[in-house]
Amino acid sequence: MYREAKTQLQTVRDLLRFAVSRFNDAGLFFGHGSASAYDEAVYLVLHTLHLPLDQLEPFLDARLTSVELDQVLGILKRRATEKIPAAYLTNEAWLGDFSFYVDERAIVPRSFIAELLQEQLAPWIEEPGNIHSALDLCTGSGCLAVLLAHAFENAAIDAADISHEALQVAQKNVSDYDLEHRISLVRSDLFAALAGRRYDLIISNPPYVSAKSMATLPEEYRHEPRSALASGEDGLEATRAILLQAADYLTDRGILIVEIGHNRQALEQAFPLTPFTWLETSAGDEFVFLLRRDQLPE
Predict the structure, then answer these.
(1) Dihedral sign, Cα of residue 239, residue 117, residue 178, residue 198
(2) 214 with 113, same domain?
(3) pLDDT tens readout for residues 236-267
(4) Residue 298: is its pLDDT beyond 90?
């Protein structure tokens, strides 16, 4: 099919139609930045041709060289047959206006916390300039640490992860944004290597997939590090540990913000006396909670 396509397809428009057909036929899952087969096709074609990602229309009828056609068909074939997330094929992921390097050593960046950082966590943080220390726990590719640095310009930031490989990816992103002087990378199993440190703000997008959900994940997710997804039988193993330890690492007025996927009901049942504040995101108010230090469970 792809060999025949090389002789039949000529324009960007041709390739987009072909890509959408192949992606739909393959039953791909779109949960790593794109919402549909069409969106992902547009992204992969434009990225591979080194064209602006927000300017499709001027190039729809542009004809490709044979080399370009080979390159585009090659990446489309890998996406459709190997079901590799697009971000791993392009080594690029976006959170808002920020682009990050990513490969299979770290989970593909995606977080509702990124949306909240665009607003400097208002109204929960009234004076962003008063945030002098912050921690991104389970940093992965370092994307949220970079966003923290931009949102809170007076903050010294630690970015911690248990995975040495993920921290190598994070180091590239920290360097790409010239933030080595503000972001320190720490290899740590949650808080284990952070003894004695205190933070005005801790954010975390930890593993939160339950054992049952891990067993039925789409193939795309199986290209990501399992340790960045799985969190025990109920999906709360990491979150439970964070809740029970965070008070020791927060300043007196410190704030904890954690993303937990679809686990709100289970979390509230596990901690019935904890007064979670659920933050509004583009997908609703079930995915990210906030607690002040004095609200954390003992």
Answers:
(1) negative
(2) yes
(3) 999 999 999 999 999 999 999 999 999 999 99
(4) no
Instruction: Give the per-residue pLDDT at 105.
Output: 98
The residue among 293, 138, 291, 296 whose CA lies nearest residue 207 is 138
Indicate if 75 and 162 belong to the same structural domain.
no
Q: In a 10 Å sphere around its CB, with 0-12 CB exposed, 13-18 middle and 19+ buried, how is residue 13 labelled?
A: middle
Q: What is the mean pLDDT of residues 100-113?
A: 97
Q: Residue 243 and residue 245: Cα distance in Å, rounded?
A: 6
Q: Which of 251, 229, 61 is nearest to 155 (CA)?
A: 251
Strands (E) across the chain are located at 93-95, 98-100, 133-137, 156-161, 183-187, 199-204, 250-259, 277-278, 288-292
d(CA 5, CA 174): 41
- In a 3-state reduction of DSSP, which class is residue 161? strand
Residue 89 region, left (φ>0) first, then alpha (ψ -120 to 50), else beta?
alpha
My answer on whether 9 and 153 are in the same domain is no
User: Same domain, yes or no, for 24 and 56?
Assistant: yes
Residues 101, 72, single domain; the answer is: no
Nearest to 248 by CA among 296, 288, 187: 296
| Confidence bin at 159 (pLDDT 50/70/90) | very high
Domain of residue 10 covers 2-90
Query: Residue 138 — pLDDT band, cuts 50, 70, 90?
Result: very high
